[in-house]
Write a structure and sequence with these properties.
It is built from seven helices and 21 strands. The chain is α/β, with parallel strands linked by helices and about 350 residues long. The protein folds into two domains: about 210 residues, FAD/NAD(P)-binding domain (3-Layer(bba) Sandwich), CATH 3.50.50.60; about 120 residues, FAD/NAD(P)-binding domain, CATH 3.50.50.60. Helix 1 packs parallel to helix 3, helix 1 packs parallel to helix 6 and helix 4 packs across helix 5. Helices cover about 25% and strands about 30% of the residues.
């Protein structure tokens, strides 16, 4: 059981900035995200694509923005619990909230912040008989869980995530072989990445198979490869020891729908002074919330996180004044940030 001032559900840009604003107010946070890394859709969907509307940054990639936010929250040492989905949230008699993940990890928090973007991102799974028992052993949805050394790796997918995975595996040189399977010999990825893929194909370091997966090939419960239907409507076998399924992500509201929150069109209704939900002490920021005039922009989420943090401070520190301080001049904020106070002439 982990006790904390604040539990932030979602480690995308708005969730990370929520940690920063809480930290400035002296509120420590734990962060949970269903993805195995921080960054949310910013990293999953446009990691290397340019973002032009972040104040003070004329242009940055999704990955760069997340790296900067991770650096920004480092002084506050939040607990990060990645690859876990919050499955239950219930009130306690003392006014705090108890949350539990699907993996069984429990939190007791004075405040809860839902920063889940458009919902918990779940990888699109391989819908073949016998696949589920092999997940995280021989069927993977993220490269982090794949041990490729000496293995025949088959990557499924046709978009940037699949291409990037195949290229990275080939460049690492540890896998016995790397094969990329897609329904067409046409891939969606940045031009430079596609050129790199073609060079690897020409060198024989990546094989490409075109077809649709039909069935797993199993021997004594172990994966040996896939049966596919190729473009000529013939059935063929593709050998593989490990499958890396990169078919994209699909957001879903998930367990959040059962927490008793007021919802409108599958979004969490909040007030615009505190960004508090219909549940006292539970706040919602970013794309997951709804109010009149809502705009799904990063800058809107950052604004919402700031006001939600100040509202939460009243709950975390009852009876104490919550002062507005500036990072430029406040010695207390300098101390919390671990920076030297500016010298004055």
């Amino acid at each position: 059981m982990i006790e904390t001032d604040a539990l932030v559900i979602g480690a995308g840009p708005v969730g990370l900035f929520q940690v920063f604003e809480l930290g400035l107010l002296g509120i420590h946070a734990q962060v949970v995200d269903a993805l195995p890394h921080a960054g949310g859709q910013c990293v999953e969907l446009y990691a290397d694509k340019p973002i032009y509307d972040v104040p003070g940054l004329p242009v940055c990639s999704g990955r760069e923005l997340v790296e900067r936010l991770e650096q920004q929250i480092r002084p506050f040492a939040p607990g990060l619990h990645l690859g876990q989905e919050v499955s239950a949230l219930q009130p306690l008699p003392d006014g705090r909230w108890q949350a539990e993940t699907a993996a069984g990890k429990r939190f007791v928090a004075k405040t809860v912040f839902i920063a889940a973007g458009v919902g918990a991102f779940q990888p699109k799974r391989l819908r073949l008989e016998g696949a589920e028992p092999l997940e995280r052993r021989q069927i993977h949805h993220h490269p982090d869980t794949l041990a490729a050394s000496g293995q025949r790796v088959l990557v499924l997918g046709g978009e940037e995530a699949a291409v990037a995975a195949a290229v990275a595996l080939a460049d690492a040189g540890e896998a016995a072989s790397v094969t990329l399977l897609h329904r067409r010999d046409v891939f969606k990825a940045p031009a430079a990445m596609l050129a790199h893929l073609q060079a690897l194909r020409d060198a024989g370091r990546v094989q490409v198979e075109v077809g649709q997966p039909l069935a797993l090939r199993l021997t004594d419960g172990r994966l040996q490869g896939l049966d596919i239907l190729d473009l000529s409507a013939a059935h063929r076998a593709v050998a593989a020891d490990q499958l890396l399924v990169r078919l994209g992500l699909s957001p879903r509201l998930g367990p959040l729908a059962d927490w008793g929150l007021a919802l409108e069109r599958k979004l969490v209704v909040v007030d615009t002074a505190r960004f508090e939900t219909s549940l006292s002490g539970v706040y919602a920021v970013g794309d997951i919330n709804h109010y009149a005039g809502k705009r799904k922009l990063l800058v809107s989420g950052f604004h919402e996180a700031t006001l939600a943090a100040f509202a939460a401070a009243e709950r975390v520190f009852p009876g104490q004044p919550v002062h507005l301080q500036y990072t430029t001049t406040s010695p207390k904020l300098h101390e919390r940030l671990g920076v030297a106070a500016p010298a004055h002439d």
